Fold this sequence. Notes:
The chain has eleven helices and no strands.
Amino acid sequence: MNSSQATAWLTDARFAPYLTEAGGDHEHAAALYVWNAHVSAAVFETVHHVEVLLRNTIDAQFAPVIATAQPSATWLEDPAILNADSRRRVRETIERIGKEGKAPTRGRVVAGLSFGFWRALFDRKYHQLWIDHLHRAFPHGSGDRTEVARLMSKLVPFRNRLAHHETIIRRPISSHYDEMLQLAELIDPDARAWIESVTRVPEILNMRPPRP
């Protein structure tokens, strides 16, 4: 990828952070761009595992868990559990699933809700929900809601950068990776161990192109 191709394919603005990081060396910048894609994909795999674990663990606190149930018969549309904003997100997810020609079951809605929805459940306004239900989802934590809220709040913006294919070469990738593992461990140390056994993140972090 030469400089004119980088401009045409990526735009100067998108390629600029890599050139800056590479000290103006185009070949090194191009190598960093490729590495950024590789490490982003590896980290997003880890996000995948943690997010699925998290949402299913939270949903499991509202028994009985029947994946085929209508959301209206579950905690997902219960005004005694979720506030208006959270229920709005649920309704939007239900509408999207319906437009896809699928039945909006509990399982599909849980899978379709954004990470932002799950993060919001650990805000201060949901402290009673933590006491009543959510603390049980994290049996290996301190029992403090803010422990989970802190980890999730750090993860959301980083996850969004990954989802939008933005550069993460200057981000504390290792720290974010560790935070994901910490979140998994609060739920189940065995889950953390399994995620660590299948992740590619440490390997690809070590493959970052060295500066010439």
